[in-house]
Amino acid sequence: MVKVLRRLNVAVDYPAAQTCCGQPAFNTGYWDEARTLAKRYGEVFAGYDAIVSPSGSCTAMVRNFYPELGTPPPPTYEFAEFLVRKLGVTDVGARFPAKVTYHDSCHALRELRLKDEPRQLLRKVKGLELVEMDKAETCCGFGGTFSVKFPMISYAMDEVKCQSIAATSAEYVVSGDSSCLMQIDGYLRRQNLPAKTISLAEVLAST
Amino acid sequence: MTTTAQQFLTDATAKAADLRHRAVIQSNMASYNAAVARGKARFADWQNARSRAAQIKWETINHLDRYLEQFERNVIASGGHVCWAETSADACEYILSLARRHRVHNVVKSKSMTTEEIHLNDALEATGIHVVETDLGEYICQIRGEPPYHIVTPVMHLTKEDIARDFHEKLGVPLTDSAEELTMIARRKLRQEFLSADMGITGGNFAVADTGMIAITENEGNARLSFSLPRIHVAIVGIEKLIPRVEDLALFWPLLSTSGTGQAITSYSSLIGGPRGDGEPDGPEEFHVILLDNGRTRLLADAEQRDALHCIRCGACLNACPVYQNIGGHTYATTYQGPIGSVITPHLRDAQEWSHLPYASSLCGACTDVCPVRIDLHHHLLHNRRNAVRRRFDHPLQRLAFHAWLWTMQSPARYRLAGKLGALVCRLGFKPPRDFPAPAQESFRDWWGKVGQASCLSNPERKTGKMPVLL
Amino acid sequence: MNAARENILDRVRAALRVPAHRPPDPTDAPIFLPVINSEQRFRDEFAILKGEVVTDLPAFLKEFPRIASDVPDLVPSNASVRDSDLGVTGCDCLIAQTGSIAVSTRSAGGRALSVLPPVHLVIARRDQIVPDLVTAMELLRCRYDKHWPSSLSLITGPSRTADIAKILVMGAHGPKRLAVYFVS
Taking CA atoms, what residue in B is nearest to C7? Predict the structure, then answer.
């Protein structure tokens, strides 16, 4: 992500004091704990023009849910969103010759309304062939603590997702959220399926 | 964990692994999705239709006392009776006492989730009254002795062969593999029931305040027969079913049918506004409407989640939900299933006993996207989770774990240490229950520290499976 | 019963003292696509629903020995509603948008006549065709306000079910066939 932004002449900083946006606590109902981390986020990231995250779910937490906690959100963007909507860029000079399919992570899709942006970026990657899977918008089943509390439902959802991926014969499945990729990767590896997982940022960084 | 929650976990585990069930549901959902896409194409502006409907329901629910009183006035003016039932028991008792007074022996029922909610059939049968479900799907459920699997399509989980076997074994008819023949068998049997019934009991999709009418949406015609032939008609509706004007149905009827089945409008969209009118050749002698509370005023009092009462029971959220698709309707073990069920059940029933339902979701938000009246479903699941924690329904160990987690997250040094400990544990060969990929050789944090503000170097290791990085 | 009424209304009023978040307003943009040629649209929708348009009335009637009719001038009645093969009624209007036919206890001879017999024939005039549901509800309001019939139905095609494995079957409980004959 840093490589891509540098290529586009964006001044990038990484405040080392950062930890977590608080979503795991928030999603499990521990809003007081989440609020503490929300306030901390505001302090750690004070003064930046933009905060960019590779994760749609962290970005959604900050933008959509910090207000529910009573903490105003600093200007935070998901990576693809930042490139396309803020910088107005779709071609980042990347090269990744492979057949890929894109998994819409739920937070990016439904909380941030990102659907076209990642695809616009992928279509400009040299050598990349983008195919759509049948169930691109269906949840992979991770859901944070959901995968721990209800592992069998999570697994079934993962299986449905991976079958949809396999049906495209894509070499790679791409997504913004690393938690989705981790969930999907788990099933693909265990079942010895050929597709590999890769984040959007890695694809865009490739030359 | 409550036993209800334990049972849920057991049933969910079994169903999630049931590949036959999964295949049947996936196939059903594919047809449903195609039909709904066609149905939505009939709208010039589906999003505006949702907004308009949300506005009308907001107006009604937030002035509900006024609309309830107007509705009651108009039902009474048309010669009908209104019963206000605070609980399931009150509603059942009203119907039973009516049945006693009128010497009712045979009852025909049309499909109504509200009657499921109050366990009406059990109450009637306990007094020796013969009650038969006339909606084909509900009739099949009754034959099987099972609750409905889905609020709109009660036997979505069954194949034609399953149903043929049930008819053959329970009704003594020859085994057939024709859906047409099975339907005709039911038609013939139920015709006799309609003609001999003393009382017809229906639900209502809407209760129209300005004309005092119950609106019923159906495809089969069994509701029409239930409110036309028997000498008494009882309609039971939750108090949230109110809409202001009969004209509003020009929006709500197609909205409900499009979201429910993809149809432009169902085969029969009826309005009942009283018993047989003056000069009318047929119709019931008496018309009774039961307005049911049964916990709805509790939900009304929760202003944050009050819009859950806007629900028109279309079933779209169930169909969109990947959790529902994998665990099926019976696993929820309660009348209202899927996302709307997980939102309202902790309010309508014991909050602690049902606190597991809002957690049985990955919060994907597909439900909120499809809701025709724009209920903020997946956010209400979050609200219910927060409420459960506030009321200390959570396990003390979980509470402790999150306190510890917070403590870790408040310091970058502790956060880094936790990350390294996790990586170390994995390297020592501990197999986590989930399939985690190997942690990266080098965290982003370390990479940044080494490279610093210098020009980018290509990093040979792929970074997967780490906590997301914030710049 | 009255105590319950007061209890429920009191709880409702108490609950509503706290205001709920108001959803964003809808726009003025039309919700449904406009209906261009009402008669053609009605015929098209009606055909998709497997409705039948009768052109030769005597030939159609020959099929049915026992007829219960609320339009005796045109189709004489010779059976009761319960014993008929065919029910004949008028209607309030026909709706092009959905191919629906609006009937009431007044326009269709009660409640059972248009649903109990296995076949239902509607006698209608072309000028009874209205473009959409909104217009239909306006018409019904105009006609019946202050003295509504005890029941009305919008009938959209014959009775049907897809409860068995999503296989469409006609004639679940209501009429298996729905026909319309236009006089004039």
Answer: B86
Pairing of strands C151-155, B268-272: antiparallel
> Do A72 and A115 have their domain in common?
no
- Identify whether residues A156 and A65 lie together within a single domain: no
Q: What is the DSSP string of B70-95?
A: HHHHHHHHTT-EEEEESSHHHHHHHH
Same domain flag for A81 and A95: no
- Among chain B residues, the shortest Cα distance to A65 is held by B379
Window A:138-167, CB contacts with B under 8 Å: 138-139, 141-147, 149-157, 160
Q: For chain B, which residues make up each domain, given as ranges? A: 54-294, 396-463
Rounded to two decimals, the pTM is 0.93
Does the pLDDT of residue B108 top 70, yes or no?
yes
The domain total for chain A is 2
Q: What is the pLDDT of residue C169?
A: 95
The conformation of residue A99, written as its DSSP 8-state character, comes to E
> CA-to-CA distance for B222 and B218, rounded, in angstroms?
8
Encoded tokens for C44? 């098209």
Using the structure block, give the residue that is written with the tokens 């694809």. Answer: A203
CB A94 within 8 A of CB A67: no
**First vs last Cα of chain C: how many Å apart?**
54
H/E element, B30: helix B19-40
CB–CB of B224 and C4 under 8 A?
no
Give the CATH H-level superfamily of domain B54-294.
NagB/RpiA/CoA transferase-like (3.40.50.10420)
Q: Do A96 and A81 share a domain, yes or no?
A: no
Mean pLDDT of C60-74: 97
Q: Do A and B make contact, counting contact as 3+ CB pairs within 8 angstroms? A: yes
Is pLDDT of B464 > 60? no
Q: Domain of A162? A: 90-205
Whether B452 has a pLDDT exceeding 50, the answer reads no
Q: Kindly provide the residue ranges of all beta strands, DSSP E only, lying in C55-112, ordered along the sequence.
A: 67-69, 86-89, 93-95, 100-104
Number of CB atoms found within 10 A of residue B305's CB:
23
For B53-107, the pLDDT digits (tens) are: 999 999 999 999 999 999 999 999 999 999 999 999 999 999 999 999 999 999 9
Nearest CA-CA partner of A175 in A54, A63, A58: A54
- Please name the member of C8, C149, C161 whose beta carbon is closest to the beta carbon of B297: C8
Residue B160, exposed/middle/buried by CB under 10 A (0-12, 13-18, 19+)? middle
A43 and A110 belong to one structural domain:
no
> Which ipTM was obtained for this model?
0.97
Q: Which of A60, A85, A110 is the last residue of a domain?
A: A85
Question: CA separation (Å) from B378 to A27, A67, A98, A180?
Answer: 11, 17, 36, 19
Same domain, A119 and A35: no
Alpha-carbon distance B291 to B207, whole Å? Answer: 10
List pLDDT tens digits, range A26-54: 999 999 999 999 999 999 999 999 999 99
Helix (H, G, I), strand (E, B) or coil at A137: coil
**Residue C172: how many CB atoms within 10 A of its CB?**
26
